[in-house]
Write a structure and sequence with these properties.
The chain is of the alpha/beta class and 471 residues long. The protein is built from 17 helices and 24 strands. The longest helix has 16 residues. It comes from Aquimarina intermedia.
Length: 471
Amino acid sequence: MKVEQIYTGCLAHAAYYIESNGEAAVFDPLREVQPYIDRAQKDDAEIKYVFETHFHADFVSGHLDLRKKAGSEIVFGPGAKPAYEAIIAKDGQVFEIGDYKVKVIHTPGHTMESTTYLLIDENNKEHGLITGDTLFIGDVGRPDLAQHVVSDLTEEKLAGHLYDSLRNKILPLNDDLIVYPNHGAGSACGKMMSKETTDTLGNQKKTNYALRADMTKEEFIKELLTGLTAPPGYFPQNVLMNIRGYESLDSILDRATKSLSPEEFEVVANETGALMLDTRDAEDFAKGFIPNSINIGLEGSFAQWVGEMIPDVKQEILLITYPGKEEEAITRLSRVGYDNTVGYLKGGFSSWNESRKDFETVTRVTSSDLEKSYKTQKPLLFDVRKKSEYDSEHVLGAINVPLNEINNHLAQFPKDKPLILHCAGGYRSMIAASILKQRGWVDIADVIGGFEEIKETSVPKSEYICPTTLL
C-alpha cells in the first residue's frame, strides 16, 4: 500500500494522499488544494473523500475547497458538529477507496472528535495509522486546546480521555503498523515531537514516553500537562473557522493581489489602519524599512510567527515582499486564517526607496562587536529565544523575554538605554526589533547570526556562556 506524505516544513504539517483503482482520498489537507487535485489527476483518479482527524487549531484545512472543486465528501469522526454538510462517521465504520479500506477509530483526547484512521491494503492487511494529533512520533497531542473553545473541556478531562484512547484503541494494534502523524518537530500542537515524521507503532510503544505500559492515568496526566506553554492566540480562531466554514482561497487571492504604488500604499495604510507586514529577510529589512512596519520573514516559520505575533486573524494587512513573492505570502497567511490582506507594495521596498519616502533602519552588530561592548559597556542584552533554549545555555546577564511573550512584557525594555537583541540565528530577534521600533523604541541593535555566532566568539565559556547546571 502506498501512502504519500505531503509535508510542509514551515508549518511542520503532514497531509496524506492514497489512491487505488481511480479513487483517491486526502487526509488533513492544507488550505490551498490545487496540489492535491493535480496529484489525483496525475493518477487519473477522483478524490472521493477528504478525511479530517479533528478540527485543527494550527491551520485552516482545505476540506471545503476540495468539496467544491473536486466533489469530495468530507468525513469527520464521531461527535464532530461542523456547520456545513459532512459525513459524521461512527466508531468502527469502514470507507472504501478502490481496493483500499479506511477504518474509523475514535480516539478522543486532543479534542473530543479526534479520530485515527486505520489503513487497510488491497490484501486486507492493516498497513498504517493516520493519527492526526492523537499520536506523534515521540509525543502525543496537547489536551489543552479545546477548552479555549468549550470552557468545560478542561485539560485534565481531555488528558484522561487521551490516556483511555491510547490504551484501549491504539496500544492493542499491531506493532508493524506505520504511524502517520499530522505534525513533526516545530509544531505547537505538542511539546517534544521528533524530527522524524513516521515510525512503526511497535517502536513508539518502546520509545514514546506517553505510551509506557506501566504508566497510570494520574502519571500520564501529570507528565502530559507538565511543561506545556500557552498555545498561540490564533489557535481558537482557526478552530472556529474549521468548524463554521470559511471563504474560498480563490476569493481571498482575487481580493488580496492588489498592487499599490508607494503613494497608494501610504494612503491605504493611513485610511484603513492596516498592519504593514514586511516579509523580506532580516538583513534586507535592517538596511531599510517603511516606518511602523514589522518584519516576519517569509523564509522562516512565517505562518506560525504571524499567528503568534498578530493576535486577531481578522486584522487587515498590507504586504511588503520581494517582487514575485506576493501570492506566496498571501497564501501562507491564509493557511492560518489571516484572510484580510488588502494589497501589496508594487515593486517591493525598492519602489518605496526610489520614491524618496522616509524609511528607518535597524543597527546590526557582529558577535565580536558584542564581545567588545559586553566587556566594556555592559549593554542591556535581551535573549528572545524560548525559555527552554535560554535555560539550556545563555549569555551571562542576558534578560530572557521570549518573542511570543514580548507584547506582554514591553515594560522590561527601557527606552532611555541602548538595547541589543539576539535569538538563535537572527530571525526572531529581527521580528522583536521591528515590533519595538513600531512601538517607539529607537536605540536597538540586533546580533547577526544570533546565539550560534555568539558561541563561536573567543570569550571563555566559563565567563560568557552559562549552562543551567552552573547557575
